[in-house]
Structures are given as C-alpha cells and as structure tokens.
Design brief:
The structure holds two protein chains of two kinds.
Chain A (H helix, E strand, L loop, with lengths): L6 E12 L6 E12 L3 E5 L6 H8 L7 E6 L2 E2 L7 E5 L10 H11 L3 H4 L4 H14 L15 H13 L5 E5 L7 H18 L2 E5 L3 H7 L2 E5 L6 E6 L14 H19 L1
Chain B lengths: L2 H27 L10 H10 L1 H35 L1 H16 L5 H9 L3 H25 L3 H8 L5 H39 L4 H10 L3 H29 L11
Helix pairs in contact in B: 2-10, 3-4, 3-6, 3-8, 3-9, 5-6, 6-8, 8-9, 8-10, 9-10
Classes of the chains: A alpha/beta, B mainly alpha.
Amino acid sequence: MTGTGTPFVELRQVALTYGEGRDATLALAEATMSIAQGEFVAVVGPSGCGKSTLMKLVTGLMPPSRGEVHVAGQKVTGPIKGVGMAFQNPTLMPWRTTRDNVMLPLEIAQPHRSRLRAEKAAYIDRVEKLLASVGLGEFGAKFPWQLSGGMQQRANVCRALIHEPQLMMLDEPFGALDAFTREELWAIMQDLWLQRRFTAILVTHDLREAAFLADTIVVMSKRPGRIIQIKRVDLPRPRTLETTFEPAFVEIVHELRERISEVRAA
Amino acid sequence: MSRERRLQLIMPWAVTIGLFLIWEIACRAFNVSSFILPKPSEIFAATVKFYGPITGHSLHTLLTTLLGFAIAVVGGMALGLLVGASSLIYNGLYPLLIAFNSIPKVALVPILVIWFGIGTVPAVITAFVISFFPIVVNVATGLATIEPEMRDVLRSLGASRLDILVKVGIPRSLPYLFASLKIAITLAFVGSVIAETVASNEGIGYLMLAASSRSDVPLVFSGLIVIAILGVVMYAICAWFERRMTGWAFRGDIVT
C-alpha cells in the first residue's frame, strides 16, 4: 500500500476468532496490509475494534485463526524476537532502578545477552545516553516509583528501544498521560524515530497523536475489526506542535474523526 | 525524636505491661486460685525457679521449630515456584494442597510417632507441615500475578520460560514470600509445641505437659509466655529481613 521496496510487515487476509463454538467472537476480520521498512504506522478506531489484537498477531504472541503474517520476509509462527514493545501500563520493575530497567532487553535479547558481561561499561554508557536523550539523564539511579507518570513512560520507551529493534510496537503508550506530557512525548518519540528509523506500529485512539507521528494511518471499524481506510500523512518532518494547528493537519484529523463517527454509528 | 515517634515506640511495651498489671490486679481483687489462673508474679517466680530447665527446653523447641521452618521455606518456595509457573501443575496440585492443609496437624502426630518414634523428628515434621502451606500459596500468588504486558514484553524479546521466572517471577514473588514467612514462623511454633505435647521427652511442650500433670499451673503459664516471646522475636527477625530484602515493595516517598 505504501512505501517502496519489499514490505517489512505484511498481513495477508488475517482473521482472529476468540473462543470456540457458540462463544466464538470474531475480533479481527480479513486484515490485509503491508508496512515498509522504517515506516511509522498508526492504527486508530473505536474501542474494542481489535487494535491490540493486531499487535499481538504481528509480534506472533498470538497465532491468527486464518491468514498469514510475514515479518522481514519470514512467516510468523511464534513470538518473533528483537521487537520493542511499550504499553499504556509502563510495567517497569519496581525492584530495579530506572537504569537497570532499561538494561533488561540487553540481558535477554541476542547478541547483547552474550556480550553484556564483557562490555558492561559500554552498555551502561549506551543506556545513560538514551536516558539523557529523553530527558532522564539524572534519573538512572532512581526507582520507577520515584518518577512521575510521564517519566516512567519515557523510561518504558527507552526500554523498548535500547536493543535497537527493527520493529517497535506501541500500544497506547501515552494514553494515560495528561495532554501536555503527551504532546511532549510525541516530539521525543518522533526524534527517536528520525534518528533510528525503526518500523513502528502505534495503536492509539488519539487522532491528533496518529496524525502527528504517523506516515500512514489505518482506520478500523468497530468489532469485528476491519480495515476501512488507509490514510497517508504527507506532512513534512520534523513536525512540531505548530504543525498541529496548520490547516492540512486539522483537515486530516477532521477527516479521520468523521470516518470513525460513521463506523461507530453504523 | 518527636513526641509522636517516641509514643509509637513506647506503645507496645506500655500495652503489654498494662495487660499484665490488670491481670495481676484482677487476680488479687477477685481472689482467683492460682490453680485456675496464676498471677503474673507467680508465673515470674516459677520462671526464675525453673530457669535452667526452661532455658534448655525452650532452646530445644527453638531449634526444632527453626529446622522445621527452614525445610518449609525451601520446600515451600520450590513448590510455590512450580505451582505458580505452570497452570498444569497448579490445577493438578492445588486441590490436594488444600485438602492436606485442612487436616488438623495434631492428628498427624500419632502417625508420625508410628513412623519415627517419640522425639524430635515428629516435632520437626509437624512444624514443617503446618508452616509449609502459607509459603506455597504466597509464592505461587506472586508468580501468578505477573502483569500480562510484562510477559509480552519479555516474550517478544525472545525470553524463555526460565528467563521470565528469573527476571520477573522470583523478584516479584519475594515480597509475598517474606510476608508469608512472618505467618509461617509463628505457625511453626504451634506445630512443634503440639508435637512435643503429644509425643516428646524434650521441648517446652513436654515441659508444660509435665508441669500440668504435677498441677504446677504457674510453670505451665511460664511455658506459654516463653513460647509467645520466642514467637514475637522470630516474627520481628522475619519482618526485619522483609524490609531489608524487599524495601522496594514498601515504596518510599514519591518524588515528582
């Protein structure tokens, strides 16, 4: 659908049904889409439209009932490795300092896992740099519960990024934050993406957030979720808060809003 | 130290001493026979008089209890991790665990005596079986309540089940473990004393039984109080460990 070259993530007529027999509910119906390497995709839709299901399918945490998911040219059959994930709930470990929380993926994902012991200092340096780049430079030694909600969420994003995954899955990571903090984190997220150019899938119900961050916005219908529109966002980067007041931006948000109202009413 | 804080520290002592004072006064006022309820002063006198035997027997009980408790901690943690990590094992074992926990442990002692004879072994085992259950349940709860998002994060990094257990499961279940230790240590005393009362020639339980057969009621009460003190001291040690090991679970003041 978008981008050039071979798609990095590809969904071919993917469907997911929860439960069995009479209790079976169709969560996602016939989703087909492809995402290019380095593309930032946002998925929006009314609540319960299978947005989060889509995330679990792409990462292989859940097998599809029908259809196929391909990532990096390979069919997904189990949890794929080297994915960065960030959820609305920061799920930082309260017994680890912020720095050690961000270190976690390095202790698990290869090749870092086998190198960690030998190159500990270099890795710690890398963590500190990443923390500093999101404004948490002085907070590495603090415990997560000593941080504010916005700071916890920044640490969460750092944890998802530290092992330099090619694919980032963001499931409403800014959903629980106040409006100011949220907008601040959009900018930080965009900066990180511009530097590293990972492929990102962001699930959100905030249309402004989708329009701010994404190259492509996928609009889904209410349950059973269907992809009803794919919208390109061609606004220049880096986008700033000023961008969100420009007519082109407002128009995109307006159009999405209208589309979602239609499907909610339907 | 503020007035408030000083009061907080004095309170437990004040209440305990107050209780003993009321006890003493009530016994004198209503002229209660020391065969029914001895006065604290009489209990104290008996404790001083039998200082030697009480020390010996209570040390024996303490060792018996600690041994049973140690086995319960190791076994309880191991089983708790198994039960918490696998829903298959959980489903298989849980009804059995509850059934076993419902058995009055005093009813086990005669069986243990048949197997191991009279003495320390049945007391150790009773202390173990009675304090085992809360540890298993708590450790398993700690594991079973890992947030699903946390699991997803780890799985998508390529973590194995063992990784998840080591990185999240065990640290997460530690506060639950330490909370259960405080309960388990006091239960372990119940277990060892029960067994000593039924089938032993040593320990504070035996001492109390012997004293009661001689109608030396003050000594029986002295034994009770010694057990209570041991229980409180061991509880305090467990609580201290809990704070040291899992300070993060108590959360300090939030800095924003």
